[in-house]
């Protein structure tokens, strides 16, 4: 019955948004309340779950998205994104731009959380799109596929890191195996699949597309790259210091504070305000106007992500995730496939890759001792399952749709299909490694 209710909720969301033309935030509220009642939540618990889901979701991403949008706006308007795009195009040519951006997504995605990486790379993608008159989805999807895979498969991202600890896996080995699985998944779901999407018409948000500047007015190459990628450089630097310095040392609390994405982005915005703004003759009032415009551009996106969080929390509070996972445990499937399937079903039902991964781990963990499954591969199998079929209840779906200004149909055709390909190919890679590793030992 729970699965039927969730299926009806998804269909209702699709109907309200696609055919009814209802604002997506309102659609989430209109669906969440009857779903909560249908799953047996009393009014007080239903409202508490909605408020908690909306607050927790926004609380974890609002600072990141707002600061990232500000940095992205300045990177675009200053000409830094145009300079980076020009350097990359000259180095690799327009014929290889998909592969170039995909490789950049891999590098950026290792230390950066998905939401941080997304808002930082979008201005770069849009700059390439408008300068060289290329289709936005065709150019951007490979880079976003790389970011998504890093988020779902590899430490130091939240779910994979927690799974490594729960399964007592080896962090370095999991990361190495994850790279072996991630590369073919991203290549197939990114550059190769995106070639079928050249016909999708996308008019990205105008706020993140700056007018083309003459080359003499662009910031320097080093300034452009350093200011734009400063969050990546800072995170890598702090992570390196934490790895070298002894755990529990006097600098530990300060480094942990500096490693927070919100702090990293706040520092980066401050530096970029000087390096791309004040140092190049811009007035502070003009820079602040640009930041205000960036926040206006993403206000609706934040509300939609909050609405998705409210629905997710209602499903969690009702016990839907536990019920679904328990129902799948008696299938008799191989452990790695079972871990992937449990995470995939919870992902489709709840929308959160992190919750899907952590819930699946709790259900699979008791069977690990009996199954003798490789814990490193189990981390990757669950990570792959947690990316399957991103749709209306996933904040990432709406982030992509609204930034790229796509219809629901084209978002499903591009984003949802890409995430599904990544998930299925990821499972295939895990099973191939599971077969090959004993032969290599």
Element-by-element helix/strand order = HHHHHHHHHHHHHHHHHHH
Task: Please count the helical segments.
Answer: 19
How many structural domains does the protein architecture include? 2
Outline the low-pLDDT stretches.
none
Gyration radius from CA atoms, angstroms: 22 Å
Q: Report the mean per-residue pLDDT as an integer.
A: 83
Give a verbal description of the structure.
It is a single chain. The protein has 441 residues and is mostly helical. The chain folds into two domains: 55-135 and 214-315, no CATH class; 138-201 and 333-441, no CATH class. The chain contains 19 helices and no strands. It has helices at 2-19, 24-38, 43-77, 80-92, 97-109, 114-132, 136-153, 158-166, 171-194, 221-244, 252-258, 261-277, 284-317, 320-328, 335-350, 353-371, 375-385, 395-404, 408-440. The longest helix is centred in the first third of the chain and has 35 residues, at 43-77. It is globular and about 65 Å long. The N and C termini lie far apart (47 Å).
Secondary structure layout:
Elements: H1 2-19, H2 24-38, H3 43-77, H4 80-92, H5 97-109, H6 114-132, H7 136-153, H8 158-166, H9 171-194, H10 221-244, H11 252-258, H12 261-277, H13 284-317, H14 320-328, H15 335-350, H16 353-371, H17 375-385, H18 395-404, H19 408-440
């Amino acid at each position: 019955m729970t699965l039927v209710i969730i299926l009806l909720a998804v269909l209702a969301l699709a109907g309200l948004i696609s055919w009814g033309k209802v604002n997506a935030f309102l659609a989430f509220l209109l669906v969440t309340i009857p779903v909560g009642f249908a799953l047996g939540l009393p009014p007080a618990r239903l409202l508490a779950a909605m408020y908690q889901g909306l607050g927790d979701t926004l609380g974890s991403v609002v600072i990141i998205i707002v600061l990232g949008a500000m940095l992205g706006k300045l990177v675009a308007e200053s000409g830094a994104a145009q300079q980076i795009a020009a350097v990359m195009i000259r180095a690799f040519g327009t014929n290889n731009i998909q592969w170039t951006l995909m490789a950049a997504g891999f590098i950026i995605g290792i230390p950066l959380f998905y939401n941080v990486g997304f808002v930082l790379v979008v201005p770069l993608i849009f700059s390439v799109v408008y300068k060289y008159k290329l289709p936005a989805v065709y150019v951007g999807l490979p880079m976003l596929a790389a970011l998504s895979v890093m988020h779902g498969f590899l430490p130091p991202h939240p779910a994979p890191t927690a799974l490594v600890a729960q399964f007592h896996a080896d962090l370095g080995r999991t990361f190495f195996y994850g790279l072996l699985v991630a590369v073919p998944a991203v290549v197939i779901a990114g550059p190769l699949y995106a070639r079928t999407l050249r016909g999708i018409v996308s008019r990205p948000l105008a706020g993140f597309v700056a007018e083309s500047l003459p080359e003499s007015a662009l910031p320097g190459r080093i300034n452009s790259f350093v200011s734009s990628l400063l969050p990546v450089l800072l995170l890598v630097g702090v992570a390196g210091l934490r790895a070298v310095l002894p755990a529990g040392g006097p600098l530990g609390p300060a480094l942990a504070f500096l490693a927070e994405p919100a702090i990293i982005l706040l520092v980066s915005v401050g530096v970029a305000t000087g390096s791309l703004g004040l140092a190049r003759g811009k007035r502070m009032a003009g820079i602040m106007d640009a930041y205000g415009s960036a926040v206006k551009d993403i206000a609706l996106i934040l509300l939609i992500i909050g609405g998705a969080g409210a629905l997710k929390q209602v499903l969690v509070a009702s016990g839907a995730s536990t019920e679904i996972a328990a129902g799948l445990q008696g299938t008799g499937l191989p452990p790695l496939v079972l871990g992937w399937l449990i995470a995939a079903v919870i992902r489709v039902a709840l929308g959160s890759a992190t919750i899907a991964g952590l819930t699946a781990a709790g259900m699979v963990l008791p069977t690990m001792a009996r199954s003798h499954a490789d814990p490193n591969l189990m981390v990757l199998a669950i990570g792959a399952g947690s990316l399957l079929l991103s749709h209306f209840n996933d904040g990432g779906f709406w982030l992509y749709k609204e930034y790229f200004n796509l219809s629901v149909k084209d978002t499903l055709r591009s984003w949802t299909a890409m995430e599904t390909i990544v998930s299925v190919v990821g499972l295939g890679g895990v099973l191939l490694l599971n077969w090959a590793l004993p032969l290599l030992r």
